[in-house]
Amino acid sequence: MGQGKQDRRGKGRSAASKVAMYTVMLTMISGAAAPYAQAASSSRAAQVVEVTGNVTYKKSGGSKSNYVYQDLKLNQGDYISVGPSSSLTLKIVDHGDELTIGENSEVYISELLDSGNGKTSKVKSWAGTLWSKVKSLVSSEDEFEVETPTAVMGVRGTHFLTYYNPQTGETTLVVAAGVVGATTASSTSGSSSGGPGSGSKSQEVKVYPSQQLNLDQSTKSTDLKSKVDYADPNKIVIVAPPKVLEALIKNAADIQAELKEQKDKLNKDLQQGKTKPDEQSTLKFQDDTDLNKIKGNFDALLPNLAKQAVDGKKIDTSVIDKANASIPDPNQKIDLNHVTPIDKSAGLDPEIQKIKEQAGEYFNQLLHELVELQQNQQQLASLVRQLEADKQRTDEQNKEAIKAADQKASEQYASSLDAAAKKEFETNKQKNETSGINPAAQPTAPTTPSSSSSSSNNNSTNTTPPVTAPDPVQLVSPSAAGEYDLGTIKITAKAPADTKILLMNGTETVAYAQGNGDQPVELSLPDKSYTGLTLVSEKNGVRGSAVSVPALSNKAPQAVLSEVSRSATSVKYRLELSNVPALYAVQAHMTYDAGALNYAPAGTSSDLPDAPNTVFDGSNIAETLRQVQGQTKNELIYAATFFEASTSNPTSNIRLSGSKTAVEFTLDVVNTVTPGTGNASAQLVSIKVADKTGNVVFQLPTSP
């Protein structure tokens, strides 16, 4: 394959291709393995502190759902589903961070690692509400990050809430204490490091206590500051489940302690002449008056949320009492009878306010244009209905006129015939009406004169021959229902050269071809399933009887792991994919007995060498194969993806028709085993195939 593929596996591969693989795989594999850990990293755990209702989890790479229970330890790559009226609280074992996951939520633990230099904790929220209580990160290399499909939020010691609505694609972030740096998910995926949260400072906004950030799929990274506002307690309480609100309020003492540190820092900033907490913040203060309003909002969020939650019957006042019991300062206790509203105008940066106003004007303009468009569409629809009514009325009038003219012509013609010819004419006319065939032309005289006319008149009088339908189409293939590779569904049929072959789906013509006598003609069809098709012949506007066509469909996408060869020291396997309509990335998981088989790459890297004539073949492609060792079973993870480098042409999905090899690999035999006995052979546990947008187009979970 030449030079192109070798070049892509060279020096630049770890920077470019792994960016693409990381991004696509995280989007695609919700229940699969986590991003690749470096060899020196060690895994960490999150322990279940509290669970209520129906909460399940899937282990990394597995397809089986298991119920969550008290003290269960979850790890990197595990996928959590929280059902209705349910909740889950987790604690990171070696750091004390807490996560409270509300009802109807889906959370994926994407990273829980300790590299030696720092600890990384990353979760991805696919749906629902998540409350995070993060202790101060000790090392500059420590990371704590929450990601949704539209936003990435990195923190350094904070209390914050995130809510992701999968139906609208909107992410809501509310900060109670600390600072959260947020970027759009799209701005991080193209960064040089490839990891979430690595967007540039110009693409990041810092969200401070009592502030709220709303992002959706249309948000551009340059618009982030215009998306930050002061929190709306009423809306927050509406979307946040009771358990999440309880978790927030019960941590009131810790939140107030962290807020005090932040307010003290802002006081020092002002004394040193600073007017902003940092360049990525939307807050600005010129004097003590401005700063006091900002600090007042810091303190106001918690009481406002508590009052809204109690008024909305989301929580009981006993939750407030317990929280107040842990607050030592009487002046800081939550008093539901004296709640100061959040000042929406406090500390607004005039430049950012101007951007918001411009965005509001632009939105109003779009709204005005949308209203005009809807009005125009309504007027157009009314006009179309009027035209359709006029056309129907005209068609009916024309039909009546044609019918009257035909009747008059028929009567005039019949009156010119003798008795025998008239009887034959009426018989033919009745046959045509019964068969539904309407002759297009005026009846012509018959070629054979009747006996009565020949004896009484020297001029022969002719009658109309019956109009006959063409012979049916001869179906050559298929002779029976069948499944076809992508792009190969076709029908072969025969008909005379003067006859058209119509392929019908009910009353709709889906394909047609001109007959070619004894030579078959082909009618190709798009990829989909077909039932109830018929072939109909047509000649001079007259159609013959229909011929049924067997049901046709495409073969379903498949993934097959097969044993190619076996010796006393090794076993070679081949993973094949077939009939995938849109393929951009793949991740497959295979398992085998750890005491029988082992995968040892040729070098220290998990990158695969060049393999011509495989699914992933060409430039801008990355493929890895790595083994995760277990006590009883080893897991082999194959991951491959196309990617776009800054200097390369855009890459697209490929359409895989028929079967093609994705990867071949060899396992070393640790102990002598018999083929096909138990776990002595490798088994395909699961595979997911995604298109370029990250949509899973094919997945195959099997029982290990």
UniProtKB/TrEMBL annotation:
Keywords linked to the UniProt accession: Coiled coil, Signal
Feature: compositional bias, Low complexity: 438-466
Pfam families hit by this protein: FecR
Listed InterPro entries: FecR (IPR006860)
Segments of skewed composition (Polar residues): 209-221
Signal peptide interval: 1-39
Region (Disordered): 184-226, 427-478
Coiled coil location: 245-276, 370-404
Domain of life according to the entry: Bacteria
Residue span, FecR protein domain: 79-180
Protein name: FecR protein domain-containing protein
Protein's organism: Paenibacillus cremeus
